[in-house]
Amino acid sequence: MEYAVIAFFCGLSAGVIAKIKGGSFWIWLLVGLVLPLIGTLAALFMRWDKDEPRRRCPECGKVLPISDQVCMRCGRDLDFPQAPPSDAVAS
Ligand SMILES: [Zn+2]
Question: Are residues 34 and 61 in the same domain?
């Protein structure tokens, strides 16, 4: 029973951290439940999409990763600004 409570709170914290960092709350909730402490730590230290440069769609205002070439909301083709090729950013 105690383990279930601890796992629950670890899962919750992992989910909340992931959500703040722009990840999926539910996926990280599950990760935290299955791997209580590891899931929370992984959520804390993992790099997120949010670190990527972002730009705003001129059509609908949605904020997108700079590597996206089409707006996911309105389908507008986006020109590629001064960003370097994504291959160079990957490392
Ligand atoms: Zn758009």
Answer: no
